[in-house]
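Board notes, transcribed. Complex of a protein with iron/sulfur cluster.
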Amino acid sequence: MQEYTSCHWIQHGLSFESNHIKMCCLCCHKGGGRIVITDKFDEKKFDWKTFLGIKQKFIDENIKGIIDPRCDGCFNLVKRGWDDNEKYISYIHFNHWTRCNCDCIYCYTNWDKKNFNTKPYYNVFPVIKKLFEEKLFRPGGEITFAGGEPTILKDFDKLILYMLKNGADRITIHSSGIKYSKGIEKGIKEKKVSVCLSADSGDKDMYKKIKRVDKFDIFWKNAKKYAKAQPDDNKKLVETKFILIPEFNATKEQIDKWIDLNIETGIKSIVLDIEDVYCQDLRNKKKQIPEYLVDLCGYIIEKAKEYKLNLVEYNNFRYLIEEYHLV
Ligand code: SF4
Ligand code: SF4
């Protein structure tokens, strides 16, 4: 194995985007990510061997010590031995549609919701089927869904059930939680699927303010149903996510209520992040995260410990923890 600086997405990953394929979905670090591998994706012409050949060019650059500036500052970059002689995929991110049954104030789709909710998207199923048939997906690999809202996609359950049947066993789905999916439930029962539900609030009023739909009760009803589907020996398969949005939900009151709801619902794992546009704006202006927000993050870390909740750090929160040495 050769030792050089690279990341697992460059070596073995891809992110399906609305009309192209990227290397990964990360964009919160200094370099900004967004490396396009294939533009104008056409599922009829797509061929995995050719695609892996294009990826190899990026790997060859890394071997020579040339790191793409768009990777600058990314926590995934690491110097170690990479198995670059083997061509396979083990990280897939589905991000190719924008439709959603929610309307979050911080979502990039909110500037033209009608357009994003009607935008055409391609069918990934035939391409994924080929990947599995050609045995190019490495068992144990990670599959994630973002979007848009996955559960409202026409072929979502078909895709999940196909991948489960063909050896995928680490699938993470980001969902608004508004529509219940039997496919997700089956995957949870088999301990192969985990679902991250977007809560962003601790009560009905704040939920409505941020999500701009009146679905708070349905959200928690579905969260409870998913939580109940978890086998006794793995209670980390259902999570709710809270994105801190200064001037909206970044208060102890909202956090306390959100944590209470998780406990009442049987959820043992929580996800935290900080709103991305806000963080990018601070970075651009070379400003520090305000003290009250750093304190609030410290408060959440302590509360999670107190209630024995698994706390998952998403991008901006993770950078904040590292910068302020919060754990
Ligand atoms: S280093 Fe980061 S930005 Fe670059 S490809 Fe890997 S995950 Fe993406
Ligand atoms: S749930 Fe996700 S995709 Fe839907 S509006 Fe909110 S942020 Fe956007």
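The longest strand covers residues 137-145. Residues 175 and 197 are 5 Å apart (CA to CA).
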